[in-house]
Amino acid sequence: MLVRRIARPLLAASFVYGGVDTLRNPQTRVPGARPVVDQIARAADEQLPVQVPRDVEQWVKVDAAIKVGAGSLFALGKLPRLSALVMAGSIVPTTLAGHRFWEHEDPEERFGQLSNFLKNAGLLGGLLIAAVDTEGRPSVGYRARRAARRASTATERSVEQAQKRAAKAEKRAQKQLKKAS
């Protein structure tokens, strides 16, 4: 559909551009990302058997690479549902790290951060819609249930035919037995 071909690149553009910009200059994002990375690493250390890296710049670069990769795939219409889901997962920590409006006292700065926070929330909403968009085709669940019903029906027919053949073979065997006796 034409709308998807136009909307996907538009939605992906901010992710690709922001990811490339961050890969070129990750140091500008490190201070904002540090509290989120520390919180994630702390929680992961408590629940995972392995040590999670704490290099904030590395996390920022990985997030940027994810945005560029998923955004490019989404813009091209390749794996659109998966790439939209990946971008949605990527925007949450970015928003929490970069737009902490609740920490600002200056009304102008607070408004700017709140506006960006809400913009990212809107992007998240669009990505969630894109992640469940089946493009008019039935969902995987529907297709799986339909295939299972068809397989079940075909199996039942095969069993019925086999039972009929077995009954005929039994009758023939009984006739032959009567003739032989």
Automatic annotation (TrEMBL):
It is a multi-pass membrane protein. The keyword Transmembrane applies. GO terms for cellular component: membrane. Residues 157-173 have a biased composition (Basic and acidic residues). InterPro entries: DoxX (IPR032808). The lineage of its organism: Bacteria, Bacillati, Actinomycetota, Actinomycetes, Geodermatophilales. Keywords: Membrane, Transmembrane, Transmembrane helix. This is Putative membrane protein YphA (DoxX/SURF4 family). Coiled coil: none annotated. It is found in: Membrane. Residues 143-181 are annotated as: Disordered. It comes from the Bacteria.
